[in-house]
Amino acid sequence: MTGRASWGKTPRQSVEEECARRGKDEVVAGCIALLRGDDGDGALIFALGGPPARWAVEGGEPGPPYWLRVWALRGLLWAWDDDALPAVETALNDEAWRVREMALKVVARHRLEDLIDPVVAMREDESARVRAAVSRAETCLARGSR
User: Fold this and answer.
1) Average of pLDDT values for 5-19?
2) pTM (2 decimals)?
3) Cα gap 20→141, rounded to integer Å
4) Which domains does the chain have, with CATH numbers?
5) How far is residue 19's CA from residue 79's CA, in Å, rounded to a whole number?
6) What Gene3D superfamilies has UniProt attached to this entry (predicted)?
7) Are the C-beta atoms of 15 and 45 separated by less than 8 Å?
8) 19-50 burial, b for 16+ CB within 10 Å, e for fewer?
9) I need a labelling partner for 52 at 20 to 30 A (CA). Which of 11, 13, 125, 145 fits?
10) How far is CA 86 from the centre of its chain?
11) Ramachandran category for residue 56: left, alpha or beta (phi over 0 → left; psi -120 to 50 → alpha)
C-alpha cells in the first residue's frame, strides 16, 4: 500500500488531490465516518483506496470491510486533524491486524503522544507486523511532540 499506485499517483498525492477538491476538513470527516462503520462516499473511498477501490465508483464487489478502515486511516496519514484522535484510538483495538498496523502508522506520523498508553499495551499483539509498528510508533513518540 505504499509507493506509486498503478494509476500513476501515490496515496499521498491522491489524498492531497481529494483535499483540494472537497477540503481537508471534509476528507478528515469522511475518514472518521468510515472508521465508525458508515458506508462512505464512493469518490472518497476511491481516492483513499486507489484502484482496489474502483468498485466504490463503478459498482461491483467490495473487498473485506476492514479495507475501508485501513484506507480511512491511510487518508489520515496525509490529512490530519485532532478531531480524528478518538477514531484512531478505537482503531488501535480493531479486530483486523491491518487496521491496527495502519492506526499505529498514523500515531507515529503525527506523534500522537496522547495515545502512548494504548500503543504500549499493544507490545504483545498477536501480529508480528503490528508489534513492529508498535516499536516504530514508540520510537517516533520518544522523539517528542509534533
Assistant:
1) 87
2) 0.92
3) 29
4) 11-142 (1.25.10.10)
5) 8
6) Leucine-rich Repeat Variant
7) no
8) beebebeebbbbbbbbbeeeebbeebbbbbbb
9) 125
10) 13
11) alpha
CA proximity to 103, closest of 71, 140, 146: 71
- Rounded to whole angstroms, the Cα distance separating 1 from 117 reads 27
Tens of pLDDT, residue by residue over 51-69, are 999 889 888 888 899 999 9
- For residue 146, pLDDT over 80 is answered with no
Q: Residue 9: what residue type?
A: K
Q: What confidence score (pLDDT) does residue 28 get?
A: 98
Predicted confidence band of residue 5 (pLDDT cuts 50, 70, 90): very low
d(C-alpha 113, C-alpha 143), whole Å:
10
